[in-house]
Amino acid sequence: MKLVRIAPSILSADFSCLAEQVQKIEAGGAELLHFDVMDGHFVPNLTFGPQLIRALRSKSRLIFDVHLMIEHPERYLHDFVDAGADLLTVSAEACSHLHRILQQIRSLGIKAGAALNPATPLSALEYVLDELDLVLVMSVNPGFGGQEFIPAILPKITKLKEMLGDRPVEIAVDGGITPDNAAVVVAAGATILVAGTAIFGAQDTTLAIKMLQTGKRLV
Ligand code: DX5
Ligand code: ZN
To answer: Does residue 79 fall inside a structural domain?
Structure first.
């Protein structure tokens, strides 16, 4: 059975030694690195811009998975691609022209994703399913790490899987993922788990990644 892929969210990492933190999770079996870009408008928090992606690009071979929680993401696509993003996920609620933005991302030669806040119905994606390489299902309200997983999202993941059919679209779930809920989230249909606190807050990041991959609490 194909193991779920793990995308540690750098938001919960130690920002005083990011390059080491990234190399540690890369060695520990992570396949993606999740960058939470926040502008203080779309979400009530402010994080970093393309320069952080650029700074880490030469230090890691991980897939750089950039989650844009910003208004007007269309203004910044080029900057993030130029900095080294492999995948750009825009928040559907922040895009007045989602179909066009997804096409623009792909035209820049990288993969395109759309994120849905917990309250946003799947119907928001109904007419862009063929423009997507990934759907990011938010299982917390975006803006902060360390929040509780919202269980009401589980049926949403399963419905999304049905909606996608056999399209080659990843289902990533983001927010409050722990070794205790990873298995049920994967069973619902997730193919990528985004996790910040459960990994960077753990004593042993390699063990934390393994627990999320297997869905088993090993300690
Ligand atoms: C929240 C971010 C998530 C968050 C995950 O707005 O999009 O990626 O950093 O952190 P945890 O795993 O701690 O909920
Ligand atoms: Zn995120």
So the answer is: yes
pTM of the model: 0.98
- Is residue 219 assigned to a domain? no
120, part of any domain: yes
The residues placing their C-beta within 5 Å of ligand 2, an ion, are: 36, 67, 174
Domains identified in the chain, total number: 1
Please check whether residue 158 lies inside any domain of the structure.
Answer: yes
Instruction: Give me ligand 2 centre to Cα 174, in Å.
Output: 6
Query: What percent of the chain lies above the pLDDT cut of 90?
Result: 96
Q: List pLDDT tens digits, range 73-116.
A: 999 999 999 999 999 999 999 999 999 999 999 999 999 999 99
What is the arrangement of strands in the sheet containing 170-174, beginning at the earlier edge strand? Answer: 5-8, 192-195, 170-174, 134-138, 111-116, 87-91, 63-69, 32-38
